[in-house]
Amino acid sequence: MAKKPQVTLHPTKNSMNENLRTSMVELLQKHLASSIDLAYSAKQAHWNVKGPNFMSVHLLFDQLHEEAEEYVDSIAERLTALGGQARGTVQAASQASLLEPYPLDLVDSMGHLKRLADNYATWGGALRDAIKEADEAGDDLTADLFTAVGRGIDKSLYFLESHFQHA
């Protein structure tokens, strides 16, 4: 089992107490890792998708990657605004992500759509928990960030699931 990295805070004039900032940095790190993982899962699908609906899903996967990159940046900036040091490398993300590893052998569009939907659903649930945790800790701004990201994740999940849901 990997050792949990020690949180070191940089000096800041942020008015939140150090214990709260430390706990929020730890929470944000988990979600930074997951957002990086999600962004590159979408890119993996974008690069490797095959099938009759290639162009539409190829473009969707690229759009999902770009949106996830915005989540990465927003989460990392909140984390560093609290005095944290973002652990944003692919190696760090792979150790801390809440998502299951994305299969490297998928090619058909339906397989990618369903697998990405699983990732979006998993992270969406974790974001709901993070909203509650930040809210209960008294960090409304971090809760608000997670709410905004969660709203986007739910919308993307809807776009993914619409490909395989039937009336």
UniProtKB/TrEMBL annotation:
Keywords: DNA-binding. The keyword DNA-binding applies. One of its GO terms (molecular function) is DNA binding. Residues 26-165 form the Ferritin/DPS domain. InterPro entries: DPS_DNA-bd, DPS_DNA-bd_CS, Ferritin-like, Ferritin-like_SF, Ferritin_DPS_dom. It comes from the Bacteria. SUPFAM superfamilies: Ferritin-like (SSF47240). This is Starvation-inducible DNA-binding protein. PROSITE patterns: DPS_1 (PS00818), DPS_2 (PS00819). NCBIfam families: PRK09448.1 (NF006975). The keyword Acetylation does not apply. It comes from Aureimonas altamirensis DSM 21988. Belongs to the Dps family. The lineage of its organism: Bacteria, Pseudomonadati, Pseudomonadota, Alphaproteobacteria, Hyphomicrobiales.
